[in-house]
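dumping this here before i forget
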Amino acid sequence: MDRAFHVLVLCTGNSARSILAECALNRRGGGRIRAYSAGSHPKALPHPLALELLAARGFDTDGLASKSWDEFAKPGAPELDLVVTVCDNAAGETCPVWVGAPLSVHWGVDDPAACEGTEAEQRAAFERAYRELDHKVEQLVRLDFTSLPREELRRELERIATLSPEPAPSAG
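structure:
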């Protein structure tokens, strides 16, 4: 492959999980991967706690926005190699036809934006989601996209979907 491996991360609202995964993929991919995120029913803006978490981890959050997945089905859209759904709703929806006939995989991750607890509990939910997504991303970037046959790559992506990070150390 003479270009970056293009990954689209989908979630219904494109305000939290998909944006976290997009950023982790772009950072860990080191130029080998170019990630984007979108949603079937995007929110007006990314979730403030997602942006706060990313900024605290040194990510540039300028330009992050909730976008419709329709942008990636239009002429001139990037040719996609992989579509990752991170929420069960998006995984069950009928997606547009993507440029590039990409592979697809589902990485179900609990929605931190749905946490209705205290502010500390909400922040912890975002941390858990980020850790889980980043763990999967870490495994994904280790794959050799240029030489793995498509079916073997699909099997590896499905294996990664089942992985969970080690529990976070307790604070007490």
